[in-house]
């Protein structure tokens, strides 16, 4: 495990160099991930640390990314949703990965993603320790969205079969007029105040449902069209389903950088504090107005 003095010792320049190397490794590995999917739809023995079924594709992607990211200098720890604890790979930054977010979408051949969060501190880190967050979306094409601490805007790349990648959208910001919404969890398990909020959203004729079952695909719809995605607090799971370190922080960071907002129902996702690497949190991201309305709707609960 990287020690505090190590993880805090990287200066700004070496931090950005390491961030570039990690993002380059993730982009260049994406085509290999994609090529390895067809033969790996099967579930394997065992569960991930969150108690979820693991697919061969999850393990394959995780092992590829550990090998590529773990060999980058100034990366101290590689942690993943598929591993109980971080792997000590040297000293420096901490990299958290959800290797194949939405892998249950493999069988129906729907969108999936790889999520990366890079922290300049020990794990479990704070959302305010993020120095870069990114996600690869395996859709009709393969794209990568990147937000960095040293840049005020979000960049979208397309990744080619060769692993080369190029910018397709610079200064990506959420459209001002939102038009899509998508919320996870079973409706009978939504809390009453959330159900009322969703009815309000649904009554807006400009809003339409977009929910694909993989957060990255759904968040990318919000980033493209404006709107809100949420995996809410549930009556049978008050902390929701999504993991803070691997999903909540990085997606919250990206959406806030793109001019939107994030929340756990009360405050920015980046201010959620948990002391367990695999802790969960309710996740809501999207246009500021929609997030403000959500927090007002849930205020009576907290
Ligand atoms: P449900 C995928 O398993 C995931 O972690 C997220 O990518 C996605 O938003 C959510 O779970 C989907 O959960 O309960 O709708 O299957």
From TrEMBL:
Reactions catalysed: beta-D-fructose 1,6-bisphosphate + H2O = beta-D-fructose 6-phosphate + phosphate
Keyword Cytoplasm attached: yes
Chief place of localization: cytoplasm
Keywords: Carbohydrate metabolism, Cytoplasm, Hydrolase, Magnesium, Metal-binding
Fructose-1-6-bisphosphatase class 1 C-terminal domain span: 174-298
GO cellular component: cytoplasm
InterPro entries, A to Z: FBPase_C_dom (IPR044015), FBPase_class-1 (IPR000146), FBPase_N (IPR033391), FBPtase (IPR028343)
Entry-linked Gene3D superfamilies: 3.40.190.80, Fructose-1,6-Bisphosphatase, subunit A, domain 1
Localization, UniProt: Cytoplasm
Domain of life the protein comes from: Archaea
GO molecular function: fructose 1,6-bisphosphate 1-phosphatase activity; magnesium ion binding
Listed PANTHER family: FRUCTOSE-1,6-BISPHOSPHATASE-RELATED, SEDOHEPTULOSE-1,7-BISPHOSPHATASE, CHLOROPLASTIC
Name used for this protein in its record: Fructose-1,6-bisphosphatase class 1
UniProt organism field: Halobellus limi
């Amino acid at each position: 495990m990287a020690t505090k003095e190590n993880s805090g010792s990287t200066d700004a320049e070496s931090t950005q160099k390491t961030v570039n190397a990690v993002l380059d490794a993730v982009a260049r590995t994406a085509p290999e991930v994609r090529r390895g999917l067809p033969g790996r739809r099967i579930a394997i023995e065992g569960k991930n640390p969150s108690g979820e079924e693991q697919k061969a594709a999850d393990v394959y992607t995780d092992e590829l990314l550990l090998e590529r990211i773990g060999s980058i200098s100034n990366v101290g720890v590689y942690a993943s949703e598929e591993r109980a604890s971080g792997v000590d790979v040297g000293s420096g930054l901490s990299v958290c990965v959800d290797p194949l977010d939405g892998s249950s979408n493999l069988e129906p051949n729907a969108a999936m993603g790889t999520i990366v969060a890079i922290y300049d501190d020990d794990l479990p880190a704070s959302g305010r320790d993020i120095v870069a967050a990114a996600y690869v979306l395996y859709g009709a094409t393969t794209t990568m969205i990147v937000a960095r601490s040293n840049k005020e805007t979000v960049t979208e790349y397309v990744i080619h079969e060769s692993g080369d990648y190029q910018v397709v959208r610079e200064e990506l910001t959420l459209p001002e007029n939102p038009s899509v919404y998508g919320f996870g969890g079973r409706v009978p398990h939504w809390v009453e105040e959330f159900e009322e909020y969703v009815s309000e959203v649904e009554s807006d004729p400009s809003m339409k449902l977009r929910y694909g079952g993989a957060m990255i695909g759904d968040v990318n719809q919000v980033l493209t069209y404006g709107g809100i995605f949420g995996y809410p607090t549930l009556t049978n799971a008050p902390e929701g389903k999504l993991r803070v370190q691997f999903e909540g922080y990085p997606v919250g960071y990206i959406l806030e950088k793109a001019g939107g907002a994030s929340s756990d129902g009360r405050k920015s996702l980046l201010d959620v504090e948990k002391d367990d690497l695999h802790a969960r949190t309710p996740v809501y991201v999207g246009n500021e107005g929609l997030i403000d309305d959500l927090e007002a709707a849930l205020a009576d609960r907290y």
